[in-house]
């Protein structure tokens, strides 16, 4: 075959639904020479990473680990361990990732029942309560931050209460919320939660947070049938991440270096300060988007700070705008997903991207892009509105 | 919680069963800012990585991808896709990883039948033929390079012939051989093969090679029951790695950057030259080990160049020697695994570690270590023997 050139990816600003911008310190950690996955010095790195994960998830769960794969692997680990063949899982019907939960539940040998809710809206806790009464589920899945629609689930404690009243465990997707938006695992009564690196944690994908309460872990350890995945079986992973530190599989050492550094940055900033930063800069980004004529898909009470779904002015096709942003301005935003694929764009404001520079660069490029596509606006209106919002 | 210190892992020389030494260019690629997993520029990186994987595996299989996880994830993808519930898989009984294959086969809903062979010896193709006749398997698993014992399977074409005569697919573990030892997927008639980055490819773990022939992929696409893992379902991954390039899960972008660079180094060196380099430096390493009084576990005809299993002189406990090597000399070697856990050490000679410097440093440290543990040898005998072997 021909020779392959030096790796020279374009220098994109990542303001889509993830991967997000990465802090230079995280990249440096990524490129650190690995040590062995059973080296006592690496065990220390594992311990520290677990402590930092607990802090970020606001949990005391001993069972808090990075899964050796991307976010969907953590999701599959959560569903596949917690749900046994023949059991029932409720999943939300208001977005793409509830559908993925259902698919995983079926592959775990369980049954999935969808709580029907329109895309772009959060679940109503009363619907969860009614579905629990009707279907007697073993697990209730909830997506705290729907990456496909930009919807935040505002009523987490009410949902966990409804599920617990029916003795069901609650499994929460916090892929696009962890580290960017208030998430309180223990206080809210969430039994299992998973996330990913490449959203608000601002860490390239490959090692993904998972936390399981003692009660949920007891269910996992009491299973009659083994988990259908050996790789993701928590009862086996216990040997590696628990007290024993015995070999199960080779951990992705450098991904854990990077995740640890990303979590360390969160610790230094302070989690509450970080939530506030996401709120502030995503608010400014939105003011800029509205000033450019975009229209929100999601009602204010359920909007995710980390991801905005919006319709373009003049009926512009999302795909064309996404392409111009990427090819002409090196800024990544994305089209919608699922029901919103042809209707909306998705613009992220996550982690290291939730800052003045990335927000203004995105709005400036978008103003020029819309203008180039024939929309009659002031291309600078977006950046001006954002700066004014930040100045308030 | 307390603050967590800067990441400062010790500077170990990695000469165990993996992770192996990493080339600086691979680390630099790891630390390159990511772009989006659906970016056309990343699709190009994917294409190049697939081409390089095909070259390294010596295959034309279209279905050649890096799995988004470590080697065990690639193994589970291979077993879980190829084997359907109710089907039978033959697995080798001569090492740890054949046992893992059996475990995964059972979790896929299949039956595993072990071909009994002593640890430390290769399979006899006639035993495979007899087991095929007796059990009529759908899949025959074979471990080309047993990381637990240091055994190379020398008779791959005879094994695939025996399996194909009974219409079974052959699934080969080449975790500790790919990129270091002759492996010819198409010529040998291997239907599915998987590997890992952190052995002879010298790439930190996290994205792991998998290749499947058209015939085997046809079986996967014709399955009645869906694969039990959504994350590893090749019929879904086809959408992302195939023509369509549609979203399935977020790929570990930086791991693929690094794997591409590691494969590019192999392309530059030339695969045959690389096999020869492994042969030459592992040969020198072994001469050094024998000069220090270690004794081989495996017969010459089945010894893996990339990994040597050896008993220590004077009945020394492997654990104590491994610890001294690590703590006093910053050299990682490992104890045996499974049947050899308390009997032998495992010393790797893989990828960027298969060079003069690492071999001599290892032998020098081992000479001093054995001497410190009271073995009456010339501590310099190992390095002298290695240099003499290289000089021949």
TrEMBL record, chains A, B:
Q: Which Gene3D superfamilies match?
A: Aspartate Aminotransferase, domain 1, Type I PLP-dependent aspartate aminotransferase-like (Major domain)
**Stretches assigned to the Aminotransferase class V domain:** 37-336
For the region Disordered, give the residue spans. 1-23
In this record, what's one Pfam family? Aminotran_5
**What does this protein need as cofactor?**
pyridoxal 5'-phosphate
Name a single GO biological process.
glycine biosynthetic process, by transamination of glyoxylate
- Gene Ontology terms for molecular function: alanine-glyoxylate transaminase activity; L-serine-pyruvate transaminase activity
- Provide the alphabetized UniProt keywords: Aminotransferase, Pyridoxal phosphate, Transferase
UniProt record similarity statement: Belongs to the class-V pyridoxal-phosphate-dependent aminotransferase family.
Q: Which PANTHER family match?
A: ALANINE--GLYOXYLATE AMINOTRANSFERASE, AMINOTRANSFERASE CLASS V
Protein name (Swiss-Prot/TrEMBL): Alanine--glyoxylate aminotransferase family protein
Which species is this UniProt entry from? Natronomonas aquatica
């Amino acid at each position: 075959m021909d020779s392959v050139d030096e790796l020279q990816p374009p220098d994109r600003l990542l303001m889509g639904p993830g991967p997000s911008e990465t802090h230079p310190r995280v990249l440096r950690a990524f490129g650190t020479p690995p040590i062995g996955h059973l080296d006592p010095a690496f065990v220390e790195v594992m311990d520290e990473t677990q402590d930092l994960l607990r802090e970020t998830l606001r949990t005391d769960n001993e069972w808090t680990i990075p899964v050796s794969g991307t976010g969907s692997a953590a999701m599959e680990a959560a569903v596949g361990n917690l749900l046994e063949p023949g059991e029932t899982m409720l999943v939300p019907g208001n977005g793409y990732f509830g559908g993925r939960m259902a698919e995983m539940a079926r592959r775990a040998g369980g049954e999935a029942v969808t709580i029907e809710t329109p895309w772009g809206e959060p679940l109503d806790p009363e619907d969860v309560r009614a579905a629990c009464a009707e279907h007697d589920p073993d697990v209730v899945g909830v997506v705290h931050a729907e990456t496909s629609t930009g919807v935040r689930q505002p009523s987490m404690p009410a949902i966990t209460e409804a599920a617990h009243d029916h003795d069901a465990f609650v499994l929460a997707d916090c892929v696009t919320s962890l580290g960017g938006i208030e998430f309180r695992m223990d206080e809210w009564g969430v039994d299992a939660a998973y996330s990913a690196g490449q959203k608000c944690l601002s860490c390239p994908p490959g090692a993904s947070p998972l936390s399981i309460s003692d009660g949920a872990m007891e269910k996992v350890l009491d299973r009659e049938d083994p988990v259908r995945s050996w790789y993701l079986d928590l009862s086996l992973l216990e040997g590696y991440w628990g007290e024993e530190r015995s070999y199960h599989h080779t951990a992705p050492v450098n991904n854990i270096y990077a995740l640890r550094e990303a979590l360390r940055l969160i610790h230094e900033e302070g989690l509450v300060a970080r939530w506030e930063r996401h709120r502030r800069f995503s608010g400014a980004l939105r003011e800029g988007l509205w000033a450019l004529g975009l229209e929100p898909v999601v009602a204010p009470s359920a909007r995710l700070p980390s991801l905005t779904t919006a319709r373009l002015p003049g009926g512009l096709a999302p795909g064309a705008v996404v392409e111009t942003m990427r090819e002409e301005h090196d800024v990544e935003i994305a089209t919608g997903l699922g029901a919103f694929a042809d209707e909306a764009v998705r613009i992220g404001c996550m982690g290291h991207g939730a800052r003045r520079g990335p927000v203004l660069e995105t709005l400036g490029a978008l103003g020029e892009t819309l203008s180039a596509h024939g929309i009659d606006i002031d291309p600078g209106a977006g950046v001006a509105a954002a700066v004014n919002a930040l100045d308030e």
